[in-house]
Structures are given as structure tokens and as C-alpha cells.
UniProtKB/TrEMBL annotation:
Domain Penicillin-binding protein transpeptidase: 514-696
InterPro entries: Beta-lactam/transpept-like, Glyco_trans_51, Glycosyltr_51/Transpeptidase, Lysozyme-like_dom_sf, PBP_transglycosylase, PCN-bd_Tpept
Catalytic activity: Preferential cleavage: (Ac)2-L-Lys-D-Ala-|-D-Ala. Also transpeptidation of peptidyl-alanyl moieties that are N-acyl substituents of D-alanine; [GlcNAc-(1->4)-Mur2Ac(oyl-L-Ala-gamma-D-Glu-L-Lys-D-Ala-D-Ala)](n)-di-trans,octa-cis-undecaprenyl diphosphate + beta-D-GlcNAc-(1->4)-Mur2Ac(oyl-L-Ala-gamma-D-Glu-L-Lys-D-Ala-D-Ala)-di-trans,octa-cis-undecaprenyl diphosphate = [GlcNAc-(1->4)-Mur2Ac(oyl-L-Ala-gamma-D-Glu-L-Lys-D-Ala-D-Ala)](n+1)-di-trans,octa-cis-undecaprenyl diphosphate + di-trans,octa-cis-undecaprenyl diphosphate + H(+)
Cross-referenced Pfam families: Transgly (PF00912), Transpeptidase (PF00905)
Biased composition (Pro residues): 1-10
Chain intervals for the UniProt region annotation (Disordered): 1-63
UniProt keyword Disulfide bond present: no
Protein name as catalogued: Transglycosylase domain-containing protein
Domain of life: Bacteria
Glycosyl transferase family domain ranges (all copies): 160-336
Alphabetized UniProt keyword annotations: Carboxypeptidase, Glycosyltransferase, Hydrolase, Multifunctional enzyme, Protease, Transferase
Organism placement in taxonomy: Bacteria, Bacillati, Actinomycetota, Actinomycetes, Kitasatosporales
Length: 734
């Protein structure tokens, strides 16, 4: 036999997809037949995409539902094929003849009993095939219903008590191991006692639901806990036959892939219990004011009854609701006895209906707590590297550093001062702002005052970098001089400075450099001024800080180096972004630190020169699991001796300004701060290792962020409003 193959195409040329080539292939000769010489067959060259080439494989799309069903059924059809071939002749003989021959009139149209049985069996067979196909074609959705799994974030005071919660829903997921068995079985007794043995659906229940849908136009009943969980997290709440069928298919598949405990855990954490709560944990807190781990069987039965419909079974809503709730509560407890999950003796303990709380006690944010939540959430996301999207999904428990007693004392002190100002000078006080913060020497932010109400003013006055620090900045200049020494010439080593170093304390002393007087850009010689233009003569640095004499420190800053003054202030806790320009005014407090940062800076001196970055969150968990978050570590800002000298001078400053305000043994140090243009008034002081900074200033937020003159709203040197707030906030705490 001979094959005639045409020559290959010329180099560089491929065959077009539709070009054919003829191969003369003689067919096998039949018996008694000669071989025709010119009999041919055609081979068509197909394009690469139609072949099994790699390019075609890369373009393959995801399999369709029909493909998946075919693949799923292929092993079964292959096994049944031989039997089907054997039964085919019998099936043809059994094919009914219809209308029935040999019958007249209407009897021709009445099926025989064989036909009726055949129709029923065929319907059952087709239904079974349909269900198998539907099961194979149904996939468990990859994406959960985000609303069903969203949780709230809960914030706690430093003592562990709840402070606030945030989020669109009240939900906190709990591991099943943390939910008592009595609580679990109260729910199972009420909703699905056969949960651990059923296949995930209830056929009779689905039948009832479908009957009601077709007959009465609604869908209800018939849902196992697995089906309810599927509806909560994978589907919507639409009432339709299609949704009910999809729910059943997913429930069957989920029951095969997920453990019963996991399904129950998911159900308990996503179900609606009324009062704005999702999940058994929030329901326990909303109705009984305690965690789910502390519920007894009687209380659990009340919560389980709410799954039937909180609008009908919340006993606090109406007398009718109360009666229904008591009846169902009793039935659930009896049902727990029937299924062997509660003994009769235990059941006898629950004779009195456990009345839930009248109102949801879960903490909402408002007024000051909003400012605390804002600070804590910002810190938590940054420190734990949490994205906004992840954080907003909720489930976090944020344990803050805020001290409830200190927060209340600080808020009360500022509130009284604000009311007094509004009474004495309402026009000026209308634009007055009060910022305050307390920071411990280990960096914990214990309290802040951010404003009158976060819902009316989101501007956080404790964290604002708007007004200058004024003479409250002098301790940082003093610390820089003690730490680095001074240079009277441009070259050579630094000359050490001690608290007893003497400077000119007179008013209007010109500022000098090694080359001579310092001139500003306007050609004017720069000079410092003291409060009240008072002349103090030659004075030691220790005395100058104790008496708040300004002129020595402007010159000390120049001698030390403004770059070193800046670096010392930043190392102690002030933000570099808030620092003023490196001109002589820097030493007079041209920088604009927040109250939190000023308190942190003074806390560094109280901590023997060790600075810890201020932080507002000490621990984070998510649904009981710890979230990794480092705690700030202390670093050396200034030497221990330098910090001690600054603290000693500030202690003298407090004693001189407020004699008798503290006992001789009390560890209290502090200093007032004023600004040249009277735009801010400060008091920063430390008592028992906690530094508190208070600032009063005026800004008309409807016009600009430019500070306005105080016009007496902050009091006088003898009767300072910031000091009054500081004293009132600190005194009750001892």
C-alpha cells in the first residue's frame, strides 16, 4: 500500500487553517474487489486554538455547572451503562400506549394502574436525578455575608471594665468552648434537638415550608440550625422557594464538610437576639449584663426563646410578650429534660422566671469617651498594623490605659472651669478651648479632656498642636544646657553648665552669639523679656527656672545650640513636627506641642530621664485570641542627674508659686506657661509619677485656626485657670 503525501510548505510559510492536503490512502480491499488507484481522503489542518496546544490550554475557562455535573456523574453512568443496555429492550416493551387502546369514550384517557405506578416511579426517579444534579451543581459560596459576620469593637478601662463599643452591629464572636453546655443545649432544645444526628436539613420541615409558601404565600418553619446558619452567613433573608431550595442544598453540602460543633459555633455567633445584638455573647450582656460564660440554664432558656422572634418574646416589651416568653421559657427547660440534657432535680431549681434587664446596658460612646475611643483606635491600628478595613470588621477587644477615676476627675475640673467662664464672660468664653492630659512616667495615657462633646466637636483639644507652649518649654532648654554644656566660641570643646551657673536675669537683655548681638531679619536686635518686665539681676539657672525668669534661658539656648535644644525636647517626648524654627524664640516656647506631649515631656524628667512614648492601648484581643502588639520601651532622653536637677527646680517652682498647696513630703513639681502674645496659658505639673498638662486658649473655629488673645479668660498669675483645673484634677487622687 502506498501513501502519496504532498511536499511540505516552503520555509517560512504555514498552512492556512482551511487549507487541505490530500493523502491518497487506498482503503482495504474488499473480498473480490480491485483496488482503485485514485481513491483519496482529505485531512483538514485545524488552527492551533482547536488543538490541544499549550496556548489552548492556557485559554481554558473555569468549568461550567454542566461540566461539573457531568464530571460528578461520570463514574456512576459508566458503571450503569451495561445494565442500561440489558434493560433497554424491556423498557421499550413497557412503554405505555396512550390513549389506551380497546377503550371507548372517556375511559381511553384514564391511566391503568400500571401506568399510574410507572408515572409515580418515574417522578421519583426524575426527582432523585434532579436532586443529585442540583447537589453537584451547588457550591458553598466563598464569600461570607460581611454584615452577618461583622462585629463591634469593645474598649475597656484600665481596670478591665467596659468603656465603650463601636461598630454598626453589636456582635462579639465566642469560641464554642467558652459557651457553657447548658446554653448550647437550651438553644438546641428550642430550635433543633436532633442537630447532632440530622443531615443538615429537615425533609418534613422543608415540605411544610413549601406547602405554606405555595398555599399561603409565606415561608416559615422547617429550618434546621444548619439551614439557619446558611441563611445567616451565605444568603439573604428573602422569603422565596428558590432561596429555601438553595439553602437546603448548601446546608447538605456544609454538613458534609464542616463539623457540627463548628456549625453550632457559627450559628450562636451570628443569630439575631433583639436589642440590636447579634450572637449569644452580646445577647447575654444586653439582657443580663454578664458574659455568656456566666449564664445559667434558666437565663439561657430565655435567650433561646428570642430566636423565635425577639419582637414577640422580649418580655420587657409588653405584657403579651412577657406571657409568651414565660410559656416558651418553661417549655424549653422541659424539653431539655426530655432530651436528657437537664435532670429533673436541676429543672426544679428554675421555678421563677429570670427577668432580664429593662434596657440594654452595653456602653455607647458619647461626650468624653468618644475622644478616648478615637485615640485608642488610632493607636491600636498603628501599633498592631491593622488596616482600616480589617479593624472595621470588628471583633476586637481593646484594653486601654485610661484610668476611669482620673478621667472623671479631669473632666469634672474642666467642666466646672468652662461653666464658670461662660457665666462670667459668655462672649469671650464662647471661643475658649480647654485641652488636658495625664501621662504616667512609663508612658501610659491615663486621662484626657478632648472637648465638651465629640458629637458636636470632633476637634480633640488634648491632641491639638495649635498654640505655643510658651514658658512651659523652659525646662527643656534647661535640660539641654545641663546635658550638652555651652559654647562661648565657635571652636573648642563645650563648657559644662550646672544648676549654679549664673546668667543675667534682667529684662530686655540682648541675645548674643560668639560674634556679637543677634539681629533678626528686620534688622532689630533680639532681646528677651520677663513677665512684668521685672529685673532679677544675676541669677543661677536653678533659681531662674524656679522663679520663671525668661531672659537667662533665651541666652542659654543660644549658648547650648538651638539644634541641641530641639533634639533634647524631641528626645523627651515632643513631636519634631510641632517644633518651632531654630531662632532665639524657640527657647521661649514657639513650638506648639499638644497637652499629651507636654505631659509626656515632663513625665520624662519624673522618670529620671527615661522617655517612653505615650500610648493608650496596653493589650488587644480578637475573639479571645491575643493580637500581637509591642509595648513602647523606654529610652534615655537625658542623664539621670540632669533629670533630677530639672525636677528639683520644678519642685521649687511649684512651692514658690503655690505655698502650702502640698505637704513637705509630697512629690509635686510643676510650672506655669505664658506666651508673649497672650494666646495660651499652660500649667504642667507632676504628682506621684503622673504628669498632667492643662492649656487654655481661644480659637474661633468658624473662622480660622489662628489663636486669639485670651482677654483674661485664663485668669491671672495668682489665680490661674489652668492651675485651678490641674489642682482640682490631681487633688482628689492624693
Amino acid at each position: 500500500m502506498q501513501l502519496k503525501v504532498p511536499p511540505p510548505p516552503a520555509r517560512g510559510r504555514t498552512l492556512p487553517p482551511d487549507e487541505t492536503m490530500q493523502l491518497k490512502v487506498p482503503p482495504p480491499p474488499e473480498r473480490g474487489r480491485a483496488l482503485p488507484p485514485d481513491e483519496t481522503m482529505q485531512l483538514r489542518v485545524l488552527p492551533p486554538e482547536a488543538s490541544g496546544s499549550p496556548s489552548a490550554r492556557h485559554k481554558t475557562e473555569a468549568p461550567s455547572a454542566l461540566t461539573r455535573v457531568t464530571a460528578y456523574l461520570e463514574p456512576y453512568t459508566r458503571r450503569l451503562a451495561p445494565y442500561a443496555q440489558r434493560l433497554a429492550p424491556y423498557a421499550r416493551r413497557l412503554r405505555p400506549v396512550y390513549p389506551r387502546p380497546g377503550r371507548a369514550g372517556w375511559r381511553r384517557w384514564v391511566p391503568s394502574w400500571r401506568q399510574s405506578v410507572g408515572a409515580v416511579l418515574t417522578s421519583i426517579g426524575l426527582s432523585s436525578v434532579f436532586l443529585v444534579i442540583a447537589y453537584a451543581a451547588t457550591d458553598i459560596p466563598d464569600n461570607l455575608n460581611s454584615y452577618a459576620t461583622q462585629q463591634d469593637n469593645v474598649y475597656f478601662w484600665s481596670d478591665g471594665t467596659p468603656m465603650a463599643r463601636t461598630g454598626w452591629v453589636q456582635r462579639q464572636a465566642m469560641p464554642l468552648k467558652d459557651i457553657p453546655e447548658d446554653v448550647r443545649w437550651a438553644v438546641l432544645a428550642a430550635e433543633n434537638a436532633s442537630f447532632y444526628s440530622d443531615p443538615g436539613i429537615s425533609v418534613s420541615g422543608i415540605g411544610r415550608a413549601l406547602w405554606r409558601t405555595v398555599g399561603e404565600g409565606d415561608t416559615q418553619g422547617g429550618s434546621t440550625i444548619t439551614q439557619q446558619y446558611v441563611k445567616n452567613v451565605y444568603l439573604n433573608q428573602n422569603r422565596s422557594v428558590g432561596r429555601k431550595f438553595t439553602e437546603a442544598m448548601i446546608a447538605l453540602k456544609l454538613d458534609n464538610r464542616m463539623s457540627k460543633d463548628k456549625i453550632l459555633e457559627g450559628y450562636l455567633n451570628t443569630s439575631w437576639f433583639g436589642r440590636g445584638t447579634y450572637g449569644i455573647q452580646r445577647a447575654s450582656q444586653a439582657y443580663y449584663g454578664k458574659d455568656v460564660s456566666k449564664l445559667n440554664a434558666g437565663e439561657a432558656a430565655v435567650l433561646a426563646s428570642l430566636l423565635k422572634g425577639a419582637g414577640l418574646f422580649d418580655p420587657t416589651l409588653s405584657k403579651a410578650n412577657h406571657a409568651r416568653a414565660v410559656e416558651r421559657w418553661s417549655w424549653i427547660l422541659d424539653r431539655m429534660v426530655d432530651i436528657g440534657k437537664l435532670s429533673k432535680s436541676e429543672r426544679a431549681k428554675y421555678k421563677k422566671f429570670p427577668e432580664p434587664l429593662k434596657q440594654n446596658p452595653l456602653y455607647d460612646t458619647g461626650e468624653q469617651s468618644d475622644y478616648l475611643v478615637e485615640l485608642a483606635s488610632q493607636y491600636a491600628k498603628k501599633a498592631a498594623h491593622l488596616s482600616d478595613q480589617d479593624f472595621d470588621l470588628g471583633g476586637f477587644q481593646i484594653y486601654t490605659t485610661f484610668d476611669r477615676k482620673r478621667e472623671e476627675a479631669l473632666t469634672d475640673a474642666v467642666t466646672k472651669a468652662r461653666k464658670a467662664a461662660l457665666k462670667d464672660d459668655p462672649k469671650t468664653a464662647k471661643t475658649a478651648h480647654y485641652g488636658a492630659a495625664s501621662v504616667s512616667d512609663d508612658g501610659r495615657i491615663l486621662a484626657v479632656y478632648g472637648g465638651p462633646d465629640h458629637r458636636k466637636q470632633g476637634y480633640n483639644e488634648s491632641n491639638a498642636t495649635t498654640v505655643p507652649a510658651g514658658t512651659a518649654f523652659l525646662p527643656f532648654v534647661y535640660a539641654a544646657g545641663l546635658e550638652h554644656g555651652v559654647h562661648k566660641t565657635r571652636s573648642g570643646s563645650a563648657t559644662p553648665v550646672t544648676p549654679q551657673s549664673v546668667y543675667d536675669g534682667n529684662d530686655a537683655v540682648p541675645v548674643t552669639t560668639p560674634e556679637g548681638p543677634y539681629w533678626d531679619r528686620n534688622g532689630d536686635q533680639v532681646a528677651a523679656h520677663n513677665d512684668g518686665n521685672k529685673n532679677w539681676g544675676h541669677i543661677t539657672l536653678d533659681q531662674a527656672l524656679a522663679n520663671s525668669v525668661n531672659t537667662p534661658f533665651m541666652q542659654l539656648g543660644m549658648d547650648t545650640g538651638l539644634d541641641k535644644v530641639r533634639a533634647t525636647a524631641v528626645a523627651a517626648g515632643l513631636l519634631s513636627s510641632s517644633m518651632g524654627p531654630q531662632v532665639p524664640a524657640l527657647s521661649m516656647g514657639s513650638s506648639t506641642p499638644s497637652a499629651i506631649r507636654m505631659a509626656s515631656g515632663y513625665a520624662t524628667f519624673a522618670a529620671d530621664g527615661q522617655h517612653t512614648e505615650p500610648y493608650s492601648v496596653r493589650r488587644i484581643t480578637r475573639n479571645g485570641s491575643t493580637v500581637a502588639m509591642p509595648t513602647p520601651e523606654a529610652s534615655r532622653a537625658v542623664g539621670s542627674e540632669v533629670a533630677g536637677a530639672v525636677t528639683k527646680a520644678l519642685t521649687k517652682s511649684f512651692a514658690l508659686a503655690h505655698p502650702g498647696a502640698a505637704s513637705a513630703t509630697a512629690q509635686v513639681a510643676g510650672k506655669a506657661g505664658t506666651t508673649e502674645k497672650d494666646t495660651a496659658s499652660w500649667y504642667v505639673g507632676t504628682a506621684t509619677s503622673v504628669s498632667t498638662a492643662v492649656v487654655v486658649y481661644r480659637i474661633d473655629l468658624t473662622k480660622s485656626l489662628e489663636p486669639l488673645p485670651l482677654k483674661g479668660i485664663a485668669g491671672t498669675a495668682a489665680n490661674s485657670v489652668p492651675y485651678g483645673i490641674w489642682s482640682s484634677a490631681v487633688s482628689p487622687l492624693g
